[in-house]
């Protein structure tokens, strides 16, 4: 029996957790591997609040660019030549390459705040459903005058 895992498809999606919960995690399995650089976490911090936390050690605020277009949040980093060509590394374990990471956001997800602290870039997100899109209760009135009467017709 072939099984497929849908979890790799949802590594870069925010706000679709209700959709993911509909699938049985052991039913479908895929061999696709998501990109691992830079490492990141997606955290659900409340009913309609999320955070993306990315490890961007070595990058300054000026080297990072965040854009939101058509529900796609893109985080990009450009590296600048710092003159490291003259340095002889005995071990170089800190990756300083540029990157581009995209996250697909669900409808009504808004970026609330972006903070760069201690090498971690935190993007705070919140789902804000407009009032006209929220379910509402409609009252039922009882109109006695227009109700059908129990009078019988004579022929």
What does it look like?
Residues 24-32 have low confidence and may be disordered. The radius of gyration is 26 Å and the shape is rod-shaped. By secondary structure, the chain is mainly beta. The chain has a domain at 36-133: Immunoglobulin-like (Sandwich). It has one helix at 17-21, and strands spanning 13-14, 40-46, 49-55, 64-69, 72-77, 99-105, 109-117, 120-127. The protein has 1 helix and 8 strands; from the N terminus they run βαβββββββ.
What would a concise description of this structure say?
With 155 residues, this protein is mainly beta.
What shape does the CA trace take? Answer: rod-shaped
Secondary structure tally: strands: 8
Helix-strand category: mainly beta
Q: Provide a count of the helices.
A: 1
Which strand order do you get reading across the main beta sheet? Answer: 1-6-5-4
How far is the N terminus from the C terminus? 73 Å
Please tell me how large the radius of gyration is: 26 Å
Task: Estimate the strand proportion.
Answer: 25-35%
Q: Report the order of strands and helices.
A: EHEEEEEEE
How are the secondary structure elements laid out?
Elements: E1 13-14, H1 17-21, E2 40-46, E3 49-55, E4 64-69, E5 72-77, E6 99-105, E7 109-117, E8 120-127
Parallel strand pairs: 1-6
Antiparallel strand pairs: 2-3, 3-8, 4-5, 5-6, 7-8
């Amino acid at each position: 029996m072939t099984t497929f895992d849908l979890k790799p498809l949802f590594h870069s999606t925010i706000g679709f957790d209700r959709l993911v919960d509909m699938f049985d995690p052991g039913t479908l399995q895929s061999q696709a591997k998501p990109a691992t650089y830079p490492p990141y976490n997606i955290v659900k911090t409340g009913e309609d609040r999320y955070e993306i936390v990315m490890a961007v050690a070595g990058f300054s605020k000026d080297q990072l660019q965040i854009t939101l277009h058509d529900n796609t949040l893109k985080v990009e980093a450009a590296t600048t030549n710092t003159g490291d060509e003259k340095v002889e590394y005995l071990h170089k374990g800190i990756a300083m390459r540029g990157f581009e990471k995209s996250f697909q956001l669900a409808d009504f997800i808004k970026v609330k705040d972006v903070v760069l602290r201690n090498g971690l870039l935190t993007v705070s997100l919140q789902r804000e459903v407009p009032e006209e899109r929220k379910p509402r209760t409609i009252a039922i009135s009882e109109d006695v005058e227009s109700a059908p009467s129990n009078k019988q017709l004579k022929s």
